[in-house]
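pinned: reference chain
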Amino acid sequence: MPLYNKLKRPQSRHKKTVPPYSRLADYYDEVMSHVNYKNWADYLIDAASRNIREFETVTDLACGTGRLAYYLAESGYNVTGVDSVESMVDQAINRQYTGNRKPEYFTGDLRHPAPVKNQDLVVCIYDSINYLINEIDVGKFLSSVLQIISKKGLLIFDCSTEQNSLSHFNGYEAVDSIEDALLFRRAYYDRKSRIQNNLFEIYPEEDNNMYFEHHIQRIWSIQKIKELIKNNGFQLMAVYGGFTFHRGSESDDRVQFIAKPL
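pinned: its C-alpha cells
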C-alpha cells in the first residue's frame, strides 16, 4: 500500500499549484536538516585550495536560505549569495551571523550574471544545475559565470546522477510532520527522458490551502557536462565523486565538477 494512503490528508483544502520552492522555502531548513553544511563548506574550501593558491571572494549561486554561505563567511571569506526564489533569499538575509563578514544576498537566475565581478571562487551546489533542463540553459549558466569570475578563478558545481535517481528517488514516497505543516513527498524518474520528478504537497496547519510544487530536474550524464564545460569557455580540472577526491563516475550518487576559465 502506498505510504500516501497510510496518513490522512487534511480535508477540504483548496489546491494551489505554486512554483518550486516558493512555499517549500518556509520549511526548507527543516527538510534539509540532515545536511552538514559545515562539512560542505570545508570540502569546497579544500577543493578550491588544491587548484588555486589563495582566494578571498566567493559567490554561492542557488544559495537557498544561506546555510552554506554562512559557513563560508564564518571561514573568513567575502561571500555573495544569489538565488532565484525571493523567499529563500529573504531567509538568508535574516539569518543570524556571529562573525564579522555577513554575506551579501541578491535575487537572480542561474542563467544571468550575478551583480559581482572578479570572483575568486564560484560555487553552485546540491543539484541546482539539474534544474537547468536543456543544453542552452547550461550554456547560459556557464557564460554567466564567465562574466563574474576572475581570470584565475575557479568554478565548482555538482550534479545528481542517474544512479542517485534510480537508487533513491524512483518510486520514493515520504510523509513528514514539520514545524506547523504536513509535507507529502513523492518522486519518480523517467529513464527515457532522463527527467527526475519531485512532487511536494504542503499542508500548513493554519491555512485552508494545500500548496503543490512540482520540481523537474534533468539528470545529465558526466560526459555531456564535460562537453558543455569545454564548449563554453572553461577548462575542466577535475571530476570528483560525492564530496570526495576520488575520480567521479556514473556509479556515484553525486559528482563535483571543477573548472577554470580558458
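why pinned: The first strand starts at residue 14 and ends at 17. The two ends are 54 Å apart (CA to CA).
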